[in-house]
Design a protein that fits this description.
31% of the residues lie in helices and 24% in strands. It is α+β, with helices and mostly antiparallel strands and 195 residues long. The protein binds zinc ion.
Length: 195
């Protein structure tokens, strides 16, 4: 796990090493999730959008065996998720991703939290570069029995609150698959995918 060495660790003072890390950060998803700081972005931070991100990540992992997104930009109207990937997605794959995410939403799964010692969490989740400051007890957010992931962000109480998940575009560039999505309001979603 050489690439999990923290850049601030004693003995790694060389600038060369630091640059190499900062040029192409390969953060595991758990790291990224953990550093969502809602207070920095309170106005834009949307529990529905962010909860949909959890479901989309788990669905991407199940469909393609890829990691969770390494970067996420969550905004109220439209959000984007970036994945390390080898190619673009086919139209049929995009529709399947939508269908699977919407299935979890419609199943109205409860979103719950559980606290876990870091050592135990480390066996189940990728905590790769989680710094010591994150503490010894980590919060794990669960979506029914579909997904579990360390996270400090705000979430819906159950998935039906999310509404209707729709991918508005999927683009591929230089090893990065970017998926942009929107949500329709829950009351609209009851009538179907048309906004
Ligand atoms: Zn979260």
């Amino acid at each position: 796990m050489a690439n999990c060495v923290k850049i601030t660790a004693p003995g790694l003072s060389g600038d060369r090493r630091r640059q190499r890390f900062s040029r192409r950060p390969q953060r595991p998803a758990a790291f990224e999730e953990f550093f969502v700081m809602p207070e920095q972005n309170e106005k834009q931070f949307d529990p529905r959008m962010h909860s949909a991100e959890h479901i989309a990540n788990q669905t991407m992992v199940r469909m393609f065996d890829c990691g969770r997104c390494f970067s996420a930009h969550i905004e109220k109207k439209k959000s984007k998720l970036d994945y390390r990937f080898e190619r673009g997605l086919e139209e049929a794959e995009i529709r399947e991703l939508e269908d699977r995410v919407n299935e979890v939403i419609r199943a109205d799964m409860p979103v719950t939290e559980e606290f876990m010692p870091r050592a135990e969490a480390g066996k189940r989740f990728n905590l790769g570069r989680l710094p010591e400051e994150a503490g010894e007890t980590l919060r794990i957010v669960k979506i029914g029995d579909y997904d579990a992931c360390p996270c400090i962000g705000p979430h819906v109480k159950s998935t039906a609150e999310i509404g209707w998940f729709r991918v508005v575009s999927a683009s591929f560039d230089d090893g990065v698959l970017r998926i942009r999505y929107k949500l329709a309001k829950p009351e609209i979603s009851a009538a179907g995918p048309s906004e």
